[in-house]
Amino acid sequence: MATPHVTGAAALYLSTHPGAGVSAIINAIKSSATPTASLSGKCVTGGRLKCQWVLGKVSISNMPKIN
Q1: Which sign does the torsion angle of CA 55, 57, 62, 67 carry?
Q2: d(Cα 28, Cα 53) in Å, to the nearest integer?
Q3: Distance between start and end Cα atoms, the chain
Q4: Cα separations (Å) of 47 from 24, 30, 41, 67?
Q5: What is the structure's pLDDT at 60?
Q6: Residue 54 CB neighbours (<10 A)
Q7: Most buried pick, 4, 22, 37, 50, via CB within 10 A?
């Protein structure tokens, strides 16, 4: 069930980093994983996705407006 969550994280990252390349998005997602002992050796990162870390420090003023 990770696919929809990772796809959503990629979309959120791209919304706050317009023009980011595929490798930048992948690096942001992979580096944001919270290490989790039960996932060690079971997935690429050995951790779980943390969207807040993918986005980094994003202020409300940086968020795109939705019309």
Answers
A1: positive
A2: 8
A3: 30
A4: 19, 9, 9, 35
A5: 52
A6: 23
A7: 50
CA–CA distance, 51 with 2 (Å, rounded to integer): 13
Write out the two tokens for 9: 């994280």
Q: Is the distance from CB of 50 to CB of 32 less than 8 angstroms? A: yes
Q: What pTM does this model have?
A: 0.70
Parts of the chain with a pLDDT under 70: 1, 57-67
Burial 8-43 (b: 16+ CB within 10 A, else e): ebbebbeeebeeeeeeebeebbeebbeeeeeeeeee
CA distance 32 to 42: 17
